[in-house]
Amino acid sequence: MAEVLVLVEHADGEPKKVTAELLTLARTLGEPSAVFLGAPGTYAKAKEYLAQYGAAKVYVAESDDIASYVGGPAAEVLAKLVGETSPAAVLVAATADSREVAARVAAKTESGLIWDATALSADLVATQGIFGGSTIVTSKVTKGVPVVVVRPNSTAPEAASSTPAEQTVDVAISDAAKGAKIVDRVVEAKSGRPDLTEAQVVVSGGRGLGAAEHFALVEKLADTLGAAVGASRAATDAGWYPHQNQVGQTGKTVSPQLYIAVGISGAIQHRAGMQTSKTIVAVNKDPEAPIFEFADYGLVGDLFNVVPQLTEAIEKRKAG
Amino acid sequence: MNIVVTVKQVPDTWAEKKLDAADKTVDRKSVDNVMNEMDEYGVEEALKIKEAHGGEVTVVTMGPAKAVETIRKALSMGADKAVHLTDDSLHGSDALATSAALAKVISTLSPDIVITSSEASDARGGVIGALLAERLGLPQLTQARKVTVDPGASKVTIERLADNGYALVEASLPAVVGVVEKINQPRYPSFKGIMAAKKKPLTTLSAADAGLDGAAVGLAGAASAVVTSEPAPPRSSGTIVKDEGDGGTKVAEFLAAQKLI
């Protein structure tokens, strides 16, 4: 069976859930080989997780260069592995960093690139929702090794224990790849909430909140549900919530089990980022808001009454 | 500073977008087309760099003949000149082929800085900045929410958006900078700007003029192909309830019934 390379998505070695999803998907396509790229000493934290999700092999490339430069070094190492292993496919998570690496790998290896795939069949036909999810296309790479950028939350992760063979990758990064040096990393908001794109539940706030401080209502509801917090573009444009949390076109695309939209009208730009959510609940005082056209449960009412009551009701159920 | 900014004409966000039935490329004929909204932030940032450090802003686009409307918009915002790569053979180019073609044109302009935006609203790949950096062999300063250029030291520093904050990233010029939408407030073209745009230099290049290999571009050169395309099953609206004072409790009941809490 041909290898399928999976780029491990992690934060300082701590694997993200999407890594398990990619390994699960890779097992349906061939022999899953995890590719771990990170700073020296970080692999140890991922090792057990990769074995738990059935990696048959792990290529380990630890280097300060990989962690210290944007794009170039990671793409160079991954492209070299593609050249050496001739895999059936390369799977990469649809995160800001990794999709850029995937694009560069496709360019370097003269391969086709498919982004935001929500499914990938055994014969490597990918499914994507385009135009904000209004059209579903299937597509296929016709040149080189398919490099497929897969959306988090599209595959249910299944454990499959293995004892992966580890192979240390010789990392010699060219000077050309070391152009964009990361000189500092600044943490602005450490929320302790799950990542927006990985979360099973997302609670988002919009224009209806009226002010930055009212996001506390959304956060409280989110915390009761163990959810991530999102925001519409209107809310981030107004400076009420960080841009990083924006859901929709020009922001993040999410597909959680449950999406709760608070004070969001549901214009096309927002819809593009959340309409593949399994269940959508909307609270909005405007009965004409477009979000009610596609919400599974819509409540027409004042969010300042509804949301605290909802938070309390969930807390009661949890306690009871 | 020799500043290059890329723009793309796309179907209007509010238009109903679809694929052409025959060749499964984006149907650009039956809809209103506009400058990709994100590109307005790119043009604005290019103009700001010019205003701070002097120099010239060149707009580069690839697209059908009518993409010239988008060029005019960038020129009326204040860009100095433009290059329009247009050829029937380019129709259907994927992101990889497009980046190669743009890189070829951009390299002949010897830029100090290449500005691009974070994504186009039609394809939403968000990869053009990374691809241009790869093709041009330049540093990749993408996802920038702030750009600081120091022409004296031939250096550019950006704040690269990260999930919980940002990374401070620096590079020597020339470099490719990809900007996100919160970086600035794009200006509206003034009447004077609109009039002046009509007289600004515009170079139109065919694929052959640009030295592109016909087999590597367009649908023929694309590295992926659409197999099938169909409208997504409509998401029907569910239960809509008016709040009678117990709305929050009702939502909780719904969530419990769905086993979501």
Describe the fold and architecture.
The complex is a heterodimer of chains A (320) and B (261). Chain A is α/β, with parallel strands linked by helices and 320 residues long. Chain A contains 9 helices and 17 strands. A 9-stranded mixed sheet of chain A has the order 9-8-7-10-6-1-4-5-11, with helices on both faces. Chain B is α/β, with parallel strands linked by helices and 261 residues long. In chain B, the strands form 2 sheets. Chain B has a 9-stranded mixed sheet, with helices on both faces. In chain B, strands 2-3 form a two-stranded antiparallel ribbon. The interface between A and B is large, with 95 and 89 residues. β12 of chain A pairs antiparallel with β9 of chain B.
Précis, in short:
The complex is a heterodimer of chains A (320) and B (261). With 320 residues, chain A is of the alpha/beta class. Chain A has 9 helices and 17 strands.
Any low-confidence stretches of chain A, pLDDT <50, length ≥5?
none
Q: Name the shape of chain A in a single word.
A: elongated
H/E element order of chain A: EEEHEHEHHEHEEEEEEEHEHEHEEH
- Over the alpha carbons, how many angstroms does the gyration radius of chain B reach? 21 Å
The biggest beta sheet of chain B reads: 9 strands, mixed
- Kindly state the percentage of residues in helix of chain A: 25-40%
Q: Provide the β-strand percentage band of chain B.
A: 25-35%
